[in-house]
Amino acid sequence: MRNYILTLLFLTISFGYTQAQIGNYNELDVPDHTPMMNSTWDAIDKMMYKVTTEGNKKVYTPSYPAPLKKLENTVVELPGYMVPLVSGRNHDTYMLSVLPIAQCQFCGTNGIPPMVEIFMKKGSVKFTDEPIKIKGKMVFNPEPLKGNAEIQIVDAELL
Hints:
By secondary structure, this protein is an alpha+beta fold. It is 20% helix and 35% strand. It contains 3 helices and 9 strands, in the order H-H-E-E-H-E-E-E-E-E-E-E. The protein is extended.
């Protein structure tokens, strides 16, 4: 009888502890990231691909709509989250995204989030999970199959 009572007490405490871990909060109260979209990101997000066929192979060529073409070779300011291309603490080249790296970049209902490749003007930036803001010249990668991104920010500086 004593073992039965101890087992019941243990199960009751375990259940209570589990409920405390799960919590009773509303998902909408917990922000998953700071929104980064602005007019520059909106223009970047409009980039599409023209699909052609060469032999048995599909070829995807970036197509830049007018609002995005206007930004080519201009200096832009862009907030976002760092997405490193290589492991390490400091980065002089990395991707910038509207979503943090902790979130799955290829999941969700809206497809792949817009990203650009950043090339720092001088020095490197220490990796952070927090949003950053950069300023640099937007260029289009002339050979996207030989780089990481179709849209790049060169001579970037951390703001």
